[in-house]
Amino acid sequence: MSQPVLVVEPDATLRHVLVRLLRHEGCNVTTAADLAECRAALDGWAGIILAGDRIATDRSLGAALRSIRSASPAPVVLLVGSIDEQSAEEVRSVPDVLVAQKPLDRARLAELIGLAVKVRKAGAGSHVPIA
């Protein structure tokens, strides 16, 4: 796959697992533990962003995603444990975000990265519904 992926996840254990799964799929992985590290890594980023739903520590999930999208046109794969309707509406308003329910296996993760690559190739502004 050799796809660059930025993993943004505050939980070090989960971040490590995601890195291992993605590297097994042949991805070139960079990590960030929080939104500030993510934004710092996005300068010139040409890959995919994989973010956990706990990136929004001091703001809403929608605001966190808009912050990421303002720093980069890269598509975001958002992994959620559960999502309330208000957060879902906020997420739907942010373009180029694919949402996947945790837990997921290696095959589903690879599928999501493939979909994000298609979104990136389709160009900025693609809306992908929450599934």
What does this structure look like?
It is a single chain. The chain is of the alpha/beta class and 131 residues long. It has one domain (4-122): 3-Layer(aba) Sandwich (Rossmann fold). It contains 5 helices and 5 strands; from the N terminus they run βαβαβαβαβα. Strands 2-1-3-4-5 form a 5-stranded parallel β-sheet. The chain is globular and about 35 Å long.
Q: What's the CATH topology label? A: Rossmann fold
Q: Cα distance, first to last residue?
A: 24 Å
Count of individual helical segments: 5
The tally of strands reads 5
Core attributes:
5 helices, alpha/beta, globular, 131 residues
Topology:
Blueprint (H helix, E strand, L loop, with lengths): L3 E5 L3 H13 L3 E5 L2 H7 L6 E5 L8 H11 L4 E5 L4 H8 L4 E5 L4 H17 L9
Parallel strand pairs: 1-2, 1-3, 3-4, 4-5
Overview in brief:
The protein is 43% helix and 19% strand. It is α/β, with parallel strands linked by helices. Strand 3, helix 3 (61-71) and strand 4 (76-80) form a beta-alpha-beta unit.
